[in-house]
Amino acid sequence: MSDWVPTTCMRCAVGCGHVQQAADIGYGIDTVRGDAAHPVNQGLACARGIQESRDPDGQWLTRPLVRSGGELRQTTWDVALARAVEGLREAHERDPDSVAVLGSGQQTNEAAYALGKLARGGFGTRNYDANTTLCMASAVTAYYQAFGSDAPPCTYADIEDADRHVVWGANPAVAHPVMFRWIRQAADEEDVEIIVVDPVRSETAENSEHHVAPDPGKDLALARAVLARIVETDRVDEAFVESATDGFDALLDVLPDAERAAETAGVPTAKVDLLADALDQQALVYWGMGINQHVQGTETARALVDLTLATGNLRPGGGPFSLTGQANSMGTRVCSSKGSWPGQRAFEDPNHRRTVADRWDVPVDRLPDDPGPGPVGVLEAGPDAVWTVATNPVAGMPEADTAREALGDAFVVAQDAFHTETTELADVVLPAATWGESEGTTTNMERTISRVRAATEVPSGVRPDLDIIATIGSRLFGLFESTSPDPESIFEEFTALTEGTVADCSGITYDRLEDAHAVRWPAPDVESAGGYRYYDADTDEGESWSFPTVSGNAQFSTGRQAALPEPTDDDYPLTLTTAREADGYNTGVRSRGGAAGDLVARVHPDTVDEHADDVTEDRLAVVSRRGSATARLDPDEGVPRGMVWLPIHHPETNRLTLSELDPQSREPHFKQCAVRLTAPEAELPPATAD
Predict the structure, then answer these.
(1) Which N-terminal stretch is annotated as signal sequence (predicted)?
(2) Which of 85, 286, 447, 688 stands 20 to 30 A from 275 (CA)?
(3) Do residues 4 and 416 touch, judged by C-beta distance below 8 A?
């Protein structure tokens, strides 16, 4: 039998340690299980993480492909890379910004760092994103604005110490099952409760003590109602607010009346009191895509942070905890040069730009001075060439038909382990290694870095992400010393660039990870590791807080609920919302073989009855102003009347969604738009926007 090889699951962002065993004959993974020695999960693992590591259902890419005569045909790596380099070079020579690069939270830290180095330091393009803008940008922006730095202050260790677990706009029972097991175990203790805030009675709500159901998209109003109730009942932690924060008086000046805000949110005042009471305890406030993917995502995330600040819930056992979407979204945020230079070095700071340029040995004026428009803006700009790495924008972008058109007009290089809707229209397809064949590191949602190790050889015809990126970067710009760099050397280059920053990883090495299995940043030396951020209990004067903001204090915000970008009306009387299914990661390409299968719409039985004439053999069409999709009905009383629930990662769903953006984070408004239901045979062209 093969040896057991320790690694980290790359399914979701919990960062569970796995051990995996290669097949005895040929290549591939034979057995996977949780790693009892890994400090994050201590042997726990979810069935889906095991299954997708061992035997994903997606259609594997096994040979490079080049489009010829309108069809994709197998070719050699030399031919495919030459064609990719030629197309990217031609676009770059016209204008650096005519090259768009779209990365992913499915890469290792090393591959993400190398891709960012090539996008920013080689092409010098503004039009680069690491996929985090589609899921985490609002949380990131909120953290920066409130605390001066990105990432949760909390860690997994805080879960067992919290008295209240407020899960807001997230469904960890489906999205992060191992983490939710910890939350559920903590809530089994006496006087510990879970409160779920979600318009839909989700799987997490089914496993909680309380469910609060605001109207879709009205979470900001609800958060303000809760804060107003806390203020009205004199439960503000005035000592903390006075000593560690700025801006509370400005917030009070615009804070709405609790009852009026509750009415706007569609929530009874008793539920507002329930949430206010919860925050009077030691409370963790978790949130996810239901908050982030909204035109007011940043303001709403900040309003949740405001609740923790006002109640002094910014110490171990409490605080604001954003739940990360993709497996290595946190790593791409820290190392990929997407929203900041490595180590959270600010784009607009000329000294940081000079430091990065010097380390990369490129002209400083080649580096863009802002992080770019986000993926929606990238495709709206009409790039001449688009290079996608482990991402599927044809299915994952809002207004997906528009995204398909933009890619159809460009030269497209698609790099992935599996066939996707994007590889189908690419000019060059580069088959990449997947989890069990890759070496490097990843970073989970609580800032913990651990190793990713290969248990099996890379199949012939397939190459690791890092090698593909380094080869293209070397041929175009001489940016890498080797076309097959050692991942450890790339990791060392990245960590050295973080030295002295708020996200200092310079004390983390492969040798240290070999011994400790996992280390949380900031870790500025080989003995240190990050814990709860911004808080220090060991001072002569007792507790103290320190934030990397201009004033050194945490910042309150003043956002208030605004109108939704596309409310319902007579023509489109229903609200569409989107969320994950249990197999709904990465547009499902690892969890579905071949065609995507039926799109399933969850709809309240009463709403189904109202449209009974439109149902044909359990099917109907969901129509928005942008497109239509035929779905199989799943009557579900957990979905409110007047709402249609669709899985966000089915390739048909985002043909319907809006591309309106949060103006601060540039994250799209995936979560609400107006739709109608019609009979499948009566599907009509989408109405015009006016």
Answers:
(1) none
(2) 447
(3) no
